[in-house]
Specification:
Elements (H helix, E strand, L loop, with lengths): L4 H4 L7 H6 L9 E5 L6 E7 L3 E2 L4 E2 L5 H4 L22 H6 L9 H4 L4 H4 L9 E2 L12 E4 L1
Parallel strand pairs: 2-5
Antiparallel strand pairs: 1-2, 2-6, 3-4
The structure holds iron/sulfur cluster (2 copies).
Length: 145
């Protein structure tokens, strides 16, 4: 049995299709996060980006996301290692840091639903950043990343 591409190639060596397939669709990079500048801690909220469809766990304007949402970050093989606010479960972050994929990843299970079963996917009941005052964001923290 030959090894899968994510065990034999670096992120930079992957084809566009291989690169895209690494995304498990958890949706957690589309959540609003808060940083503690002093401690470096990153806190996750249950508030989604203005373009995020929580029911489908999809960006509603992926093609134009970078122009429409200035805070949206394009993941690349070069920056994957430095984005320490990304979830620790994210395949790009894991591979960039020398880890392998978790056993619930769809590339291993063959089933996109395994992400939700593992408790990694965002809730379909998120609220949108459009519907909350900035001053209340701290009250929406759900966990530390
Ligand atoms: S956190 Fe990573 S795996 Fe999850 S949706 Fe974002 S890019 Fe994909
Ligand atoms: S613009 Fe789209 S991809 Fe970027 S954070 Fe928002 S929903 Fe996610």
């Amino acid at each position: 049995m030959s090894k899968p591409f994510w065990e034999t190639k670096s992120l930079a060596e992957m084809t566009p299709a291989e690169w895209e397939s690494l995304c498990d669709g958890c949706g957690r990079c589309c959540l609003y996060i808060l940083h503690n500048e002093e401690t470096g801690d990153v806190f996750e909220t249950d508030v989604g980006c203005t373009l995020f469809d929580a029911k489908k766990r999809r960006c509603t304007d992926y093609e134009n996301r970078l122009a429409r949402v200035p805070d949206c970050v394009q993941l690349t093989p070069q920056n994957a290692k430095t984005l320490n606010w990304m979830p620790k479960t994210c395949a790009y972050r894991r591979l960039a840091n020398g880890q392998t994929l978790p056993d619930w990843h769809p590339l291993i299970t063959g089933d996109p639903a395994s992400v939700a079963r593992a408790g990694v996917a965002v809730s379909p009941d998120l609220i949108s950043e459009d519907d909350i005052d900035d001053a209340l964001l701290e009250s929406r923290i759900t966990k530390t990343r």
